[in-house]
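[scheduler] slot 2 assigned
[scheduler] job type: sequence-to-structure, two independent chains
[scheduler] chain ordering preserved from manifest
[runner] begin chain α
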Amino acid sequence: MSRASGGGGSRPPGWRRWIRVIRRDPMEEVDDELRYHLEMRVEDYMRKGMGEEEARAAARARLGDLREVRRELEGLSAVESRVERRREWLSEARQDIRYGIRTLLRSPTFSSMAILTLALGIGATTAIFSLVYAVLLAPLPYPNPDRLVRVWETSPQGSIRNVVSSGNVTDWQERARSFTVLGAHRGSYSQTLTGDGDPLRVVTMDLQPQVMRALNVPPALGRTFTERDAVDGGVAVLSHAFWQTRYGGDPEVLGRRVTVNDLPYTIVGVMPGGFEFPTDGVDFWLPITSDGFDPTERTSHNYSVVARLAPGVTVEAAQAEMTSVAGQIAREHPAEMTGWSARVVPLHTDLTRNVDALFWVLLGGVVVVLLIACGNLANLLLARAVSREREMAVRGALGAGRSRILRQLLTESGLLAVLGGAGALALAPFLLRVLISVAPGSIPLLDRAVIDLRMLGFTAAAGLGCALLFGLVPAIRASRSDLLSALRSGRDASVSGHTRLRSGLLTIQVALSVVLLVSAGLFVRSFRALQGTEIGFDPSGLVLMDVDLPMERYPETPEQVSFYDQLLHRVAAMPGVRSVAGTSQPPGSPDHMTFSFAIEGRVPSNPNGREDDEPLHAVTPGYFETLDRRIVRGRAFDANDLADGTPVVIINESLARKHWPQGDAVGQRIAFRVGETPWREIVGVVEDARLESPDAPQEPAIYIPFAQKTWTWLSWMTVMARTAPGTHPLALGEGLRSALLELDPELPPQSITTVEAAFRANTAPRRFAMTLVGGFGTLALLLSIVGLYGLITYSVARQRREIGVRIALGAQAGNVVGGVLKHTLLLTLAGTGAGVLGALAAARFLQGLLFGVSALDLPTYILTVGLVATVALLTALLPAARAARTDPVRALASD
């Protein structure tokens, strides 16, 4: 159709053709065009003879509901507007990114420092967080792991993690209703695998079938234990790792016969990869059989218990029930169980009980380092914002809005975040490998630490959060710039505001550094105290070889004593051996037997007729001489203390002080079970020694001759040899192994190590903490030095004109240097003061990790403050010296 007036020309039919017009002028143009179209129709109908009213009605009917048309056009307009805005936003974002890249490339020093700072801070934080997540936060690798708990006995002497007697395990299984299943297991120990290739030491664990049911992990091959296995025994389940290394993953391993410590077993199952219980390193799981599990025994505590909570039962409810059950047992068996109770603990909490405080401290330390790094980044961005004030002002004068400038600056911060995060991702796996390699082997669940998608997400969030959060304030300040202020000479309010903000950030950095350095200093002092601790014997030159005789071949004490006598005789004849002895508990071992005893002629303090349990050591003659431990009263064991001789015992000073404070212990007699074991005469008192570790307390201890032991199950012994001067302890390793295999070719040693190595392993967590926190403190100090140097250099540069005026008016160089150092010292003192307060607040989290030093150790605080102040002043000397050499003429001409 054609227009009636206003020019001609054909137009596409329908109202959709007006979309092209909408793009030029949204709804006002639409209204005009709709009115024009209506009037054109009215005129056309009037020319055909209709009246005006009739023509207008016909036109409206012909065009339809104009309001509906307008609403649809309005919706299309909004869609088109959003599409256009999105297109414009993406275009501007591409421009911002390209401009940001060019800007960063123009400032390589700034860019590299910012990226390196972020990469170090975020990379270290990611690595430590990976460890913390794997050990403390990730769920255990069992179905519904939050339902798994440990159940311990609590003793009258205050132990809250006492192993459980078989009689109590039986009663708990029968009476407790808070658990769907409850089972017991022994600790892992080394035994000899024979009949399947060369003899091999393997790590085994005995457990009840209920334990596997509680864990509820299906095997990769075969089956786990059944109730029938608890009666018949003779079956074994392999770990996945042992199946792979020993049998090459052969699926035909099921049904294979093996011999463990001379007892035959049939392999019935293989656990899946990643299954570890209770710790890694177990090769064989073996069933506890009913003939070795006495349901009436309550004085021998040997078992750990794991259980699965019943649906809807909380840990607190289970604890209440177990307290009640323990009370019933104590009333039924007062002689054995008076004062004993039970304690229910989530399995994950129990496994990580010894490392949770350490890992939270390490995470806190690395987060402090990250905050210091972010403070450096913020200071760099603030300095850069000041240097770009004129650029931002000119852009604003040319029409760029404040939001546009702010977005550009945040885009640059985002680029730094991406590049810093990429550097962190490259650095974090390396740091994680280093941390795992130096971490103590006693830390549970550590092998699960990996850089996975969770850690990648953490790194990305940390990078973006740090760069954008700490880049926001500099960006806001820079976006406020106006041309007049930017072109004004001298120091203005904006510059002063930037300086105050940077000084505040630096003060916080120094404070955080002081917190870390105080913590590091406390750990160093603690470790030095540990190294200087008197342990009561000389650990150097002592080599240990663990041996365990199979009960099938050596069932009686005389056979065991004869074997060890021959072995010790062979070892004593080896070149380089100064002395040799045997013991049931070697130095450096955390495991020990405890026995209660009665004192002749004395009313016991416990209802069972005996005194409290104390550690017991079965040793051979020469034990105290080999350790260089001094007998303070009486005598040591000698060759006459045989099975048919007078039963004798030696106690240490702590036990003598506890029961014979008047010093009359020698000549007294004790018995482990009156009427069942003989009375033993105390023939000597030996000085105390820290046998487990330098940081372990000195405990009361009892020593008996190995030849006079009355328990055939005590078939193990550690051979201790002290080397002659000039002989390295481990140089005896092959000779020790040969001496053992000459006596029994099917009995390889469990392990050969040194006492010093065992002590290093036991103190490794403290050394690990000291190393990491010390490293965090050093890194924090270096970052703070960089920040301080940058701030002082920046401040001197901004005051160059003022300094030039002062020098022109006669100020001496010393005055200029003194002014810079005074400013530095004030900032440092403010930061160290706040840091000392922060360290005092953090002290309560550190005390449990320290040894021999208080978390409020005054020398550490004084030395830290002195170190930080000294380093800060030395750092400020170079920019101060530059300020003193300012040329007044150039300084005044430069602005």
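[runner] end chain α
[runner] begin chain β
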Amino acid sequence: MEPTTDPPQPPARAARASWVGRGAIAVLRGLLRRWLGVQVLGAEALQTGLDRGRPLVWALPFRQLSALVVLDEQARRLGLPLPLAPLAAAGAEGTSAVIEPHAFLYLTRSGQPSPLASQPYAYAPRLQRLIAAVRADAALDVQVVPVHVFWGRAPRTQTSILKALFAEGWAIPGPLRQAVRVLIHGRQTLLRFGEPVSLRALTADTHDDALALRRVARRLRDAYRQERERVIGPDLSHRHTLINAVVSAAPVRAAIEAAAAERRITVDQAEAQARRAAWEIASNYSYPWIRAFDLGLQWLWNRLYDGVESHRMQTLREASDGASVVYVPCHRSHVDYLLLSYLVWQQGLPPPHVAAGANLNLPVVGGILRRGGAFFLRRSFRGDPLYAVVFGEYLHAMIVRGFPIEYFVEGGRSRTGRTLPPKAGLLAMTVESWLRAPQRPLRFVPVYVGYERLIEGESHVAELSGRPKQKESLLGLLHSLRRLRERFGRVHVNVGEPIDLEAFLAARDLSPPVADEAALRAAIGALALRIVARINDAAVVAPVNLVSAAMLGTPRHAMDAGELVAQVGLLRELAERLPHAVRTTLTALSATDVVAQAERTGLVRRIPHPLGDLLQVPDAQVPLLAYFRNNVLHVWALPALMAALLVGHPGIGRARLSAIAGRALPFLRAELFLSWDERELEPRVQACLDAFEALGVLPGAASTGAPPVLEVLARVLREPLQRWSIVLSVLTGRGAGRLTADALEDLCVLLAQRMAFLYDSGPPGFADRAAFRSIVATLGELGWVRAVDGRLHFESALLEAAGDAQWLLSEPVRQAIERITRLSDADLAAAEAASAATRRAA
């Protein structure tokens, strides 16, 4: 694309502009002379290499009067040609001819290039005239010296949020911002002279003025870019440099033409829509803002938390070595992405560009998040194929250029505390992008983030209890600021084992280009499950998780103080003896210290009693503790399953234990995202039983009951087992061919809500739809259920699994499930009508 050009100004207008400019410079020089402190670099090299016989023009990258004043003052001090003096060249018979009224130019006349324009650069007419003069006169050459003026030190060296915000960056500042910058950083101004550029040498072999202009401009832009990179770091503000590349890409051009035909508009109008979509999506990365975020977040963490504990952070550096990185943390809080970006920056790595929902693109807030690296996406791309293609190309451009990216494979924040089933939309786009151009390795880095108290905890509980989700708003954000007066314990961050995409695909016999679309879809689904499993593998078992698992296993959420220490000790010992994964991290505190900390932080309250003090969870804390127990429920999945079998049947044989565990494992793995499979089950079962025996809690064959600590452990897995039993009971109770998959899911949710109300089956998350959807999907994957004409039929294996309920659940729970799942045809019709209405509303 040709750069835009403007016609030269009329003489009268040029004279008026010159007179006004000289007056403004004189005033500004007087104001700044005593204020600025300027360090000059490159002056000696310039004076040595300068050809005094050739005209010299100073080139500044963009229009900035304060920079011109600095240049003029230092040129006077050093005895160099003055930028405001006329530019003269040797004429005939030794005379001197003025070819320009001033010896300086601004490379680009406009301010910040607009990504909404097809050509963002408007080059200086003076540069165009000089190139034309050199091409017209074989005896003429002009030296162009790029001048770099930086106000203050690099953003990363600033120690004040205000100074960091107004430090040098890649964005071109407006007049007001530049005035503040001069006031704050004027005493630390840096001026650097670049290497002179010969216009004749650059344009001698060209026969086209536009080509000559582009060549000179590119050389100067490269000089500015390289010097700015040395001073403040690489240009990541790709909102200004990437949108043209995105819109020019072949997939987007094809989508533009298709949109123009479909919407009956011109191609230019469709392109404008594509540019607006790219503008809506793209981040506006800014080093000054990143440094301000760094300083602000340091203050915020100290204000909110008692500490941020990070584990295996060296993995971040190892994963990013020679590769593009996609950070994929769990999503529990809006703090997640701020915290991870902060920790990545603290490791000396560039913070990632974070995918954020368009609901966070609020006034003021959206702009701040963009400058911190957020790029925005709509919740759904349906109905706008042009937007979908633009977003995909934007993501592809970031991956190809090596920008680190962060997104949440769970989609939204978990309201229950469990890791949510992955949504593979962004993941699929990432994989397909890498397959288009596998130039460098691509690695996914799972990250676990755990909290001891959640800022959004109360709203999560309210939403699980039926209150509609509150939309994000600026007013809501302002209301949440009052929580800054509270303390939220410690935060734990653990980096999981990275996944190399090329190696993952190669293990499935896939390599670029992949022609088998079905195999690629299956691989992406498997990759999504691998990511969430590795997030869970990196879980941190903190004091709050231990206390939650122990106290929620009691009927009234109360326990003798000594028994609570014993229960926490059992959970801690099991987590240590039977590690869920190599990267699972366990608190170093003893059971006694864990309980003491829970009492100090208000998780439990002490009730004095003559026969021994009691500890109880306050009623308001119960749903929140369920959240923290669910964070690490997978850590005790197998021990709790074994405990559930042993509590009701102390004499059960090891063979039957393994058989029932084998039938339950697929459902536990699907809901809790366990990283191990059937091949590891038998050794793990035996190791678990051996640990029970070593800890003295394994009932003997002649036992009449299990130890109390084992009963509490069994209740850790109560809700998943009850959900599983509800699904099986509904299917077997209604008979084959009576229900669709959607109707089964909806009915189970309704029945779980009813059971939770009638029989106290735990906190609101018991009726979580995602958990029931996972169970129904797993039944299909196992082949225990198949759809015939949309209706579900089941195999004998499902009946056998349904019989396991007598081993896993207590008699009162089994009877409760049997009662609520005993439905008449009228009940079933009412339930299906209610679920259909809910789905239509959604």
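[runner] end chain β
[qc] chain β: Residues 283-352+404-468+483-538 form one domain.
[scheduler] slot 2 released
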